[in-house]
Amino acid sequence: MRLGAAVFLVSASLLTLAPSGPPALPERMADTGGGTQLITAQASRPSSTTGTLTWWNRRDGRWVKAGSSAARFGAKGLVEGGSRRQGTNTTPTGLYDLPYAFGIKAAPAGTKVPYRRVHQNSWWCQDNDSRAYNRWTEPRAADCRAAESEHLISYGTQYAYALVIGFNYERPVRGRGAGIFLHVNGRGATAGCVSVPRDAMQRILDWADPARRPHLAIGTASGPTSIVRY
């Protein structure tokens, strides 16, 4: 075989082995939370009310897509989580943990994350004057006004299955926002949550494994709220 032909064959083999296309989205992110599972919720721009939610596994040093779904965001789009204000119908961008799941329905088969069942007296307090601000309370806390809270069982479609998003959760800042979840689609855009079709929510609950420390990153394709900044 001529030397030139041999070089050509080696070069062709290297091209075949080389990965095609751009790096997977998590590979381009500043932080993925340190675990081996990740959910990304990406919109095209801050004013968007729809986008794509994808869940990923870290395997052999690479991020591999495990599933994907259309997603909905706040009716007023997305905004940087650190500057968000309550009642603005915006979805907070950032990287968040997922403390636990809950639902009106029983946990889907295979669910490994802690799952709390909704009852008639289950509430999520959004009252800025309450000590239970941004917390599940059952029954509703005495200092938490019903008008400033969500009666979870009243949202039979959206809260059939849900995951708590750790936005403003560990050390709540009053006025920043409460009750931000990943849940089942309602009729349209959300009040600030991220939502997906019911079957996607069931698949996510079957997939998520707390031992693998899943996180959720929310952001846009570019700009100050770009998902790769988180």
Structure description:
The protein has 230 residues and is mainly β. Helix content is 11%, strand content 30%. The strands form three sheets. Strands 3-2-1-14-5-4 form a six-stranded mixed beta sheet, with helices on one face. A hairpin with a 6-residue loop joins strand 1 and strand 2. The longest helix has 15 residues. The chain is globular and about 55 Å long. The N terminus is likely disordered. InterPro entries: LD_TPept_cat_dom. Keywords: Signal. This is L,D-transpeptidase.
**Overall geometric form:** globular
The major pleated sheet works out as: 6 strands, mixed
**Strand segment tally:** 14
Query: If strands are numbered along the chain, what order do they take across the biggest sheet?
Result: 3-2-1-14-5-4
Report the C-alpha radius of gyration, rounded. Answer: 21 Å
Overall average pLDDT: 93
Distance between the termini: 52 Å
Number of continuous helical runs: 2
Strand and helix order: HEEEEEEEEEEEEEHE
Helix content: 10-25%
Q: Low-confidence parts, pLDDT < 50 over ≥5 residues?
A: 3-18
Based on secondary structure, the structural category is mainly beta
**Beta-strand percentage?**
25-35%
